[in-house]
Each structure stands twice: as structure tokens, then as C-alpha cells.
Amino acid sequence: MDLKEIRMPEGQDAYAPREKLNRNVLLACQILAGLSALAAFMIERSAGNEGSLISDSALSVPTAILLAILWVVILPAIAVFWHRKAIDEQEEAAFRDGAYFAAYAFLVAAPTWWILWRGGLAPAPDGIAIYLLFMVIWTLVWLKKKYM
Amino acid sequence: MKNKLKVLRAMNDWSQAELGQQLDVSRQAINAIETGKYDPSLPLAFKIARLFGMPIEEIFDDGFEGDKNA
């Protein structure tokens, strides 16, 4: 077969359909996150709460329900769609590798911190700090494997 | 795994993005395959082979040097 016979379709941009969908899903997620944060901020403001959303300060019931629904219902639904329809297999592998490293970081860091705390060598374990460590490692490995 | 994807792509004057469009994967995926950082799945390898009209083993080399008739 003459390889020159295979030609690119003309008049189209050079993004695979999955890649376009991937970008659109990520953009939609950013918009959703922004709108949710704005809604939560407005609800908290009307309830007289001045604390930051990213803190341990008390939240009003509507904000707590809104954010919980976002995390438990919307996020998994988007994640399932994103994995099945939007990302290609190389990104799927990068994402999986990130989860693998993050899981080991959690496996090592959480009990170590707990043991050191019990021995009086560290402050009490902070669940949010461990969660953030998990997410940062996952994200860094994912980005490295996808782009580098 | 070594492969000839970069050579085959160059023979067609395609960019990584253009090849990715044909295979419905990202430019980053093509780059990772070409540089040997990522080995494609069997379905994607077949898709690549079909696109270039070549057998998979002529594109991908797993380094096996044994008796190929065995």
C-alpha cells in the first residue's frame, strides 16, 4: 500500500475527537466549580458567615448540602463520563500511575504520622493535609506521565 | 518497546497532532508512543497497523530475537 495514499481530512483542526471532548469536559468542570463556589459564597454571605470556604469554620446547612451533592453525585458522574468517553488510553494510564503513587504515599504517610503523634513526636494527624498530599502527588505524577 | 511510528509519520508529512486525530488519541499519546514512554494497547496497535497498512510486527519491535518460525 502506498503510504502517500493516506491523506488527512482537510478543513479540520488537528485535534482528535476525544481530545476535544476532554478539553470541553475540563472547561465545563472549571465553570461548574466556579459557579458552585460563587453560589456557596453567596449563601454563606447571606447567612452571615465570614469564614473562608476552604477552612474548618462552620458552614450553613444549604452550603453543606450543595457541596456534598457536588462531591457525591456530580463529581462521580463527570468522572465516569470522562474516563469512558473523553480521555485516551495514554492519559488513562497516566491517571492510573498517579493514583498508584498517591495510594502508596497515603499508605506510608498516614500511619507514620499517626504513630509519630502517638509517640509525642508530631502534632495530631490532619486529615485534610493528608488528603491534599494524596491529591498533589496524584496530580503531579499524572501531569508528568501525560506531558513529559 | 521500539517502533517505527515516527518514521511512518514522517513519510506521510503528518504532525503528531494529525496522526493523533486519525487514531482518536491526543498528540501527547503519539509523542509518548514514539519516544517509547508508553506502549499502546493491542486495539490501538492494530488501529495503527491498519492505518499504515502494515503488520503490527513491522511497526513494533519487542526485541525478541528467537526463532521466529517456532
Can you characterise this structure?
The complex is a heterodimer of chains A (about 150) and B (about 70). The mean pLDDT of chain A is about 90. Chain A has helices at about 15-45, 60-85, 90-120, 125-145. Chain A is flat. Chain A is mostly helical. Chain B is mainly alpha-helical. Chain B has helices at about 5-10, 15-25, 25-35, 40-50, 55-60; strands at about 1-5, 60. Chain B has a two-stranded antiparallel sheet with strand order 1-2. Chain B is globular and about 35 Å long. Classes of the chains: A mainly alpha (about 150), B mainly alpha (about 70). At the A-B interface, helix 1 and helix 3 of A face helix 2, helix 3 and helix 4 of B.
Q: Order of SSEs of chain A, N→C?
A: HHHH
Topology pattern of chain B, helix = H, strand = E: EHHHHHE
Number of helices of chain B: 5
Average pLDDT, all residues of chain A: 89
Distance N to C terminus of chain A: 34 Å
Q: What is the name of the CATH topology of chain B?
A: 434 Repressor (Amino-terminal Domain)
Low-confidence stretches of chain A: none
Helix content of chain A: over 70%
CATH level 1 name of chain B = Mainly Alpha
Largest sheet of chain A: none
List the helices and strands and how they pair.
The complex is a heterodimer of chains A (148) and B (70).
Chain A: H1 17-46, H2 61-86, H3 89-118, H4 127-147
Helix pairs in contact in A: 1-2, 3-4
Chain B: E1 2-3, H1 5-11, H2 16-23, H3 27-34, H4 42-52, H5 56-59, E2 60-61
Antiparallel strand pairs in B: 1-2
Short précis:
The complex is a heterodimer of chains A (148) and B (70). Chain A is mostly helical and 148 residues long.
Provide key terms for this protein.
heterodimer, A: 148 residues, mainly alpha, 2 domains, 0% strand, B: 70 residues, 434 Repressor (Amino-terminal Domain), 2 strands, 6% strand
